[in-house]
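Task card 7
Instruction: Convert sequence to structure tokens.
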Amino acid sequence: MSLGDYLIQKRLQNKLTQDEAAILMHITPNRLSRIERNIGRVYADEIAALARVLEVPEVELLNEVDRYRNFKLSMKNEINISPEGK
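Output:
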């Protein structure tokens, strides 16, 4: 599951639209959309706001961010591995 999928799941569990969640987080709906689509970085203040609005412990959300970041790095490493002898 991607970070964005996790965030969408939690937002829907809290019965929030993207616009409602963005307003509660004090960010634009476009920014929340980008976060949920895994575009760009998620900043520390956004993690705190996401945790508050989605009603999850910050440490849980940080673990998800870490898990997703490690997954992306492993995928990047797999793609960059060239066959032997080249």
